[in-house]
Amino acid sequence: MIGRDLLVVLGMALGVYLPKLLPVLLVSDRLPPLMQRWLRYVAPAVLAALVAPAILAPGGRLAAPSWEQAGYLAAFIVAILTRRMLPSLAVGLAVVLATTVPRN
Amino acid sequence: MAVTGLCPGRLAAGLVDTLPFVASTGLLGMIFGAGAQAAGIGQATAVLMSVVVFSGSGQFAALPLWSQGAGIIVLSTFVLSLRFALMTASMAPRLANAPPWLRAAVAYGVTDENYALAVSRRGGEMEPDYLAGSWAVLYLSWVLGTAAGVFFGAQVPAQLVAPLNAVFPIVFVTLVVLCCTSVPTAVVAALGALLGALGALYLPAGWGVVIAGLLASLAGPLLERRKPRGRRP
């Protein structure tokens, strides 16, 4: 049983590492210009695709409007206005704290 | 482009910028550790998993699958990690001059959080020392959180759970805004968000982010071409 557990952990480690490793070994700096241009858009695309479900569809279901979402919206607006992390984080967390703590 | 020697300042910057994630990552690690006990994963195995695998999404997905075959667990971890291929592909041109061992090490340490932080810095350089400083904070929080959850259970005051869960969306929304430095990048991000949400609703776990990220980023160069004042091709 211990041997099986170790194998699964190692298999999981490989499952996480291979997708991370292969691109840095295979992609060189002599890429065709079109591919270089594409790669510049990967970060905004994949980060937005990563966070949107956490806000709009946590758990794979469309979320009912919540106070947390008001905090995310506040953080979004402050981020656009200030282009800084700390004000955005502070305002977003303040809204979530102010609206969720009294309910507990 | 040049990968220079280790710079303590950039290492420290990575460390400091990651501090907002300490409590929320520690909490997630704790919940995972407690959940692993409930799923029948041994104490040492659960901690070892966080030490070696170091993947929140992959490890949480393994909990309900633990009593099933090893293959399905490994496959699920792999699918949930496919998004990292997009991230490290976008880093690869900047790391191309680094020795293979360094590229392999940086790839091992890439997470959603330190990738997002590094790419949103001014200039968007992928500095290995910045990533390493950030990684160290995330790694310690995740592993120590797991150990705490395994041995003491998830003991968190109820009032703190909602704010801690809100840290990830708040920080990532901000980082997405920060890495939108032009009209095409902002359109790409909006498209990625829309497709990502649709993917989470209608696609199996893990595929939504990858397909949304791929499609939305491919739209980027097309948006540029319509703008004669955009970056030169």
Beta-strand content bin of chain A: under 5%
**What is the general shape of chain A?**
flat
Quaternary status: heterodimer
**Mean of residue pLDDT values of chain B:** 91
Structural class by secondary-structure content of chain A: mainly alpha
Number of helices of chain B: 12
The total strand number of chain A stands at: 0
How many domain modules of chain B? 2
Please trace the helix and strand order of chain B, writing H or E for each element. Answer: HHHHHHHHHHHH
As residue ranges, the low-confidence spans of chain B are: none
SS-based class of chain B: mainly alpha
- End-to-end CA span of chain A: 43 Å
Molecular shape of chain B: globular
What does this structure look like?
With 104 residues, chain A is an all-alpha fold. Chain A folds into two domains: 1-61, no CATH class; 64-104, no CATH class. Helices cover 77% and strands 0% of the residues of chain A. Chain A has helices at 2-26, 33-40, 42-56, 67-82, 85-100. The longest helix of chain A is centred in the first third of the chain and has 25 residues, at 2-26. Chain A is flat. Chain A starts with a helix and ends with a helix. The model of chain A has no long low-confidence stretch (mean pLDDT 91). Chain B folds into two domains: 8-167, no CATH class; 180-233, no CATH class. Chain B contains twelve helices and no strands. The model of chain B has no long low-confidence stretch (mean pLDDT 91). Classes of the chains: A mainly alpha (104), B mainly alpha (233).
